[in-house]
Amino acid sequence: MINNSASPINYQLFILPHEAFQICVNFQVQFDVLMYVLIENEGKFSIVSPNLFSHEDIDKGKYTILLSSEIIKFDSVRKNELFDTYPNSLYFQVGAFLDGELSESWLYTLKTSTNPLIIEIWKKIERNVKKLMLRGGYYVFVPNKSKKLVRHLSYTPNVYEKYKQGIICKPDIGKNIVFELGL
Fold it and tell me: Which of 74, 95, 121, 183 could anchor a disulfide with 105, C-beta 3.0 to 4.6 Å?
């Protein structure tokens, strides 16, 4: 029998940056974990206290929220060093929201996570996030407008409303692809 609690979290979704930030603030309180904001610059993370992170920066996205049961002791560190030192953390890479374009976000843990108690908390958080999502849409290859159904495409109701108002939803990586939300 496979122990599902040990499998890593790997969940891609569309969420407005301020929604992701607020959800993590709520989880910080609900699950009694620590929250950090990581800004990546030239392959290094700088750690910012959530209390000092401006509303403007929250709304733009393109940062990573780290939830942890342990105090993170680095000020600036390479990504791999952070992952090696804190393998039992939950990472929420928040996509950019600029100029009417929203990039995909990613909620994940590492395969090297070893603490079963904290992994169970991360799984609860993942389930709570999934409960908020609408699902279904199309992957569109822009050059020829070809579409492919994507049933597992996940997005918040607020993202869907913004999509209907004209924002473009795109993957974090890839220039010729956009998503159409809704079935």
Answer: 95
Environment class of 112 (CB within 10 Å of its CB; exposed 0-12, middle 13-18, buried 19+): exposed
Q: Are 118 and 66 in contact (CB under 8 A)?
A: no
Please list, in sequence order, all residues whose beta carbon lies within 8 angstroms of the beta carbon of residue 36, skipping any fewer than 6 positions away: 47, 48, 49, 50, 65, 66, 68, 72
pTM of the predicted model as reported, rounded to 2 decimal places? 0.91
Beta carbons of 15 and 94 less than 8 angstroms apart: yes
Q: How far apart are CA 121 and CA 9, in angstroms?
A: 11
Alpha carbons within 13 angstroms on the beta-carbon side of residue 110 total 18
Burial class, 90, CB count within 10 angstroms (exposed 0-12 / middle 13-18 / buried 19+) = buried
